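A further point concerns the way the authors explain their paired sequence and structure data. The central task, working out the structure tokens from the amino acid sequence alone, is never made concrete. I therefore recommend that a typical entry be quoted early in the introduction. An entry of this sort, consisting of the sequence and the corresponding backbone structure tokens, reads as follows:
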Amino acid sequence: MKPPVLIAAFALLTGCATVASAPPGPVLSPATAVGGTPCDPPLVVPASIVASVRAQFEEGRTGPPPAITLEDGAAYQKMQAEQRTKDWGALCYFRADNAALAAQPVPAGRVVFMGDSITQLWGLAEPQDFGPARVNRGISGQTTPQMLLRFKQDVLALKPAAVHILAGVNDIAGNTGPTTLEDIENNIASMVELAKAHGVRVILATPLPAEKFTWAPQLQPGPQVAQYADWVRRYAAEQDLVLADYYPALATPDGAMKPELGPDGVHPNKAGYALIKPITQAAIAEALKR
């Protein structure tokens, strides 16, 4: 998702990135892309953005997060835009991390979480829930065609028992261009078909509710998000997938995210993630029994 820097800074951790004055993210080796071209070095996320992102998930915080400087925001957005022209699907993002996992034994019952910023930031909200057995492969801002592009390397190559797919809201926002619900559904179906063909059980999640996008204020996405959630439920039943139905737990009657569960109406805070955690755990348990 791509909101303005000063409104929802935590959604800016897109692309290959390390962070200034904080533990680094994925450190990319000189792994090569198509044609032998090395991946670019990770982007360096400016310190004021890092501080704002991490503050969203600090225990006991009641006030607003630290402000991001205009200079840091503009500089990082420019770096992101340049990076996306070179690696549209973010195939480099987890390349080194995937190689490190491939060198280790595969834990029994491994689950890979494929998604966008909601999945990526889950690792900040609940870091103890992720590791070699619960692998986070969320990338902020991504749409379902981008996830489909990297599905083999970021999911199947890790040899999981199950995959958790939470995606589609960025498509509705138009992050990578005009998209219909049918387009989203086709991309989800393609990921499901790939997983089934490789013996990977699928946990398909409904989108989280959203009635507005701070980065696309001209849209009124609530009805489309609800319609897409209905399709996810039907498709999961038709395909005998495990359903993780998050939408009802977070939604108001008019289809917005409950204000106490997220700072911008799209991304959960710690309370939001804590609310969906039991749903996730039940879905994983069901998937691993199959």
About this structure: The two ends are 33 Å apart (CA to CA). The chain has a mean pLDDT of 86. Residues 9-86 form one domain. The CA atoms of residues 144 and 202 lie 16 Å apart.
